[in-house]
Amino acid sequence: MLNIRPLEANDWPSVWAVLEPTFRSGETYAYAPDIGEAEARAVWVGAPLACFVACEEDGTILGTYCLKPNQPGLGSHVCNCGYVVAERARGRGVASAMCEHSQREAVARGFHAMQFNLVVSTNEGAIRLWRKHGFDVVAVLPGAFRHRRRGFVDALVMYKQLES
Amino acid sequence: MLNIRPLEANDWPSVWAVLEPTFRSGETYAYAPDIGEAEARAVWVGAPLACFVACEEDGTILGTYCLKPNQPGLGSHVCNCGYVVAERARGRGVASAMCEHSQREAVARGFHAMQFNLVVSTNEGAIRLWRKHGFDVVAVLPGAFRHRRRGFVDALVMYKQLES
Predict the structure, then answer these.
(1) What is the rounded distance in angstroms from the CA atom of residue B48 to the CA atom of residue B36?
(2) Contacts of B159 in chain A (CB under 8 A)
(3) Please, which residues bridge with residue B69 across strands?
(4) Which stretches within chain B are classed as H helix?
(5) In chain B, whose CA is at the least distance from the CA of A145?
(6) Whether the Cβ atoms of residue A95 and residue A85 lie closer than 8 Å to each other
(7) How far apart are the C-alpha atoms of A83 and B138, rounded to whole Å?
(8) Distance of CA B14 to CAs A92, B41, B118, Å?
(9) Tens digits of per-residue pLDDT, B108-162?
(10) Residues of B in contact with A140 (CB under 8 A)
(11) Within a 13 Å sphere around the CA of A2, how many CA atoms are in the beta-carbon half?
């Protein structure tokens, strides 16, 4: 059983342990692979509207996601989410559970749609998963992501109108 | 003759006079139509990598644009620009001149591509102009802009790979 709850201040070390290998890999998120812990905390926890953690029954944090408006003012009814799952917890439905949770949260907060701005085209598992959750690929951005191992690769914009 | 040069600190009052009617209209930019001057200054001048003004021969500021990376780190080779032309200077090629200038600036700064994230679908003049300058419509985002008069309208993502 997975429990998804709002992030609390003392969760940060566990959340950073989940985020760090993903950010360092430079394969799926645009943040500089050498991002410092303080900056990572600012972008993941400080900037968004809300941040959540997905926990095992014993409280171990297996994943985290954050939710924020994708644009200011007249574009702020479309939200953006980022999700990261601990390497050792992959394949257990954690991303899927967080994606569903985030859509309910987004609807509850009055958002009309959810947009992912930079889905790396080589991140096939994620693309398959977001499609399964009703997201459409609305754009291919040629060479928009500098993959740490593969060099410049395309990135996708994915979008879903939410039902309230 | 139009002179496009880097913005200087004492240009701000003239730049704000150009920006304010556009931001207040709520028809083309997502910033809240009641945005305060200090916040507008922070987003237009403070946040971007570089900011420019387009001046008449007598120095009157007719337009302004700003240039910044569209994403951090591994997406920072794609830039984003915003352009605003004074109402009374429209139809005189100011936006076109700034668009060309911004592409040269972007190439000089090492950017590979330029992306516009939220081109309001009802802003037909702008869409026509960006197409003329080689930008492709890569996405339609359904209902992504809350137009102040027309309600929810689609927004476009436009993208151009730059030649260095």
Answers:
(1) 18
(2) 139, 141-142, 144
(3) B79
(4) 12-25, 37-41, 94-108, 124-132
(5) B75
(6) yes
(7) 25
(8) 57, 12, 25
(9) 999 999 999 999 999 999 999 999 999 999 999 999 999 999 999 999 999 999 9
(10) 138
(11) 20
Rounded Cα–Cα distance for residues B32 and B26 (Å): 7
Phi, psi of A70 (to 5 degrees): -80, -20
pLDDT digits (tens, 9 = 90+) for B49-104: 899 999 999 999 999 999 999 999 999 999 999 999 999 999 899 999 999 999 99
Contact B159 A139 (CB under 8 A): yes
Is the confidence metric ipTM above 0.90 for this complex? yes
CA distance A160 to B17: 37
Nearest to A73 among B30, B112, B161 (CB): B30
Structure token pair of residue B143: 């209902």
Q: d(Cα B102, Cα B25) in Å, to the nearest integer?
A: 25
**Pairing mode of beta strands A50-55, A61-69:** antiparallel
Q: What is the pLDDT of residues A51-109, one digit of tens each?
A: 999 999 999 999 999 999 999 999 999 999 999 999 999 989 999 999 999 999 999 99
Q: What is the rounded distance in angstroms from the CA atom of residue A60 to the CA atom of residue A69?
A: 28
Residue with tokens 């209902």: B143
Do the Cβ atoms of B26 and A74 come within 8 Å?
yes
> B103 CB contacts (<8 Å, ≥6 apart)?
B114, B133, B160, B162
> Tokens 């997406």 appear where?
B75
- Residue B63's contacts (CB-CB under 8 Å, 6 or more residues apart) are B18, B53, B54, B83, B84, B85, B86, B89, B94, B95, B98
Q: Which two tokens stand for residue A118?
A: 């930079």
Please indicate if any CB of chain B lies within 8 Å of the CB of A78: yes
State the Rg of chain A over Cα. 15
